[in-house]
Design brief:
By secondary structure, this protein is mostly helical. It contains twelve helices and two strands, in the order E-E-H-H-H-H-H-H-H-H-H-H-H-H. Helix 2 crosses helix 6 and helix 2 runs antiparallel to helix 9.
Length: 255
């Protein structure tokens, strides 16, 4: 489809690489690509590292652990439209709950999170982390159950403290789990759409426009089906190359 000029009724004309030439010259495509990787750079480390340490905390024999685990995972089962509406209210510039507490505690002026190009992506990131970090936490929790108790006890007998057990026992045992979490986090982040669409619509001034939204606009609003297919092909190639790189690094690490 990316080599054709298609219309809404399905008729098309072969145009070769014209759509790809158009993509290279499309300023909005490059803005969307940059914003997508910026989103990944913010959400990825927080979701992976944060999910890992939350899992470590919830793996301890604390009172209310089951309730805490459920509370961490609960946001993940909420529909993205509800997440977007909830966080639009939380981040609202004049009456939002976040600004209320920031003003009360830090005595600062209201921050217009979603209507300023300098903070809009941060608002989307906050909503995304709240919504998805529970998934990574649960995956890490499952991995922690497979850490051999004998290794932990042997390390403790040898005088290893909590930090050394973490570095030399837990992290190596979670290598496969970490690989899975990193890979899925990257793939999901590169395909981000719902949060952006419901919270900012890609604005203000394209500061939160991402690749999947650019694809959606061209395909389902402007009905440039061939061009939107070109964007999807490029996105697939990006995800494929990054995934292959992660697989290769993981294979070299295991060997």
């Amino acid at each position: 489809m990316s080599l054709y000029e298609l219309d809404i009724v399905g008729s098309g004309q072969y145009v070769g690489i014209k759509n790809y030439s158009r993509l290279v010259a499309d300023k909005l495509f490059w803005i969307a690509l940059k914003n997508t990787f910026y989103y990944l750079a913010l959400v990825g480390p927080i979701n992976v590292i944060g999910g890992f340490f939350i899992a470590l905390l919830l793996n301890k024999p604390l009172r209310g652990r089951a309730i805490a685990r459920a509370a961490v995972f609960m946001p993940y089962i909420i529909m993205v439209t509800v997440v977007g509406a909830l966080w639009r209210w939380i981040l609202e510039g004049n009456y939002g709950i976040l600004n209320h507490y920031l003003q009360m505690i830090l005595k600062i002026e209201p921050i217009y999170w979603l209507t300023s190009s300098s903070t809009a992506m941060l608002g989307v990131v906050m909503a995304s982390v709240w919504w998805t970090i529970g998934y990574n936490t649960v995956i890490f929790l499952a991995g922690l159950q497979d850490v051999p108790r004998e290794l932990m006890e042997a390390a403790e007998i040898d005088g290893a403290g909590s930090f050394r057990r973490l570095i030399h026992v837990i992290i190596p045992c979670l290598r496969s789990t970490t690989f899975f979490v990193v890979l899925t986090t990257i793939i999901y982040s590169l395909q981000v759409f719902g949060q952006v669409y419901t919270m900012t619509g890609g604005g203000p001034r394209y500061s939160t426009l991402v690749l999947v939204q650019h694809l959606y606009i061209n395909g389902f609003r402007l009905f440039k089906l061939g061009y939107s297919s070109t964007i999807s092909v490029v996105l697939f190639i990006v995800i494929f190359l990054i995934s292959m790189g992660i697989f290769r690094v993981n294979k070299q690490t295991l060997s």
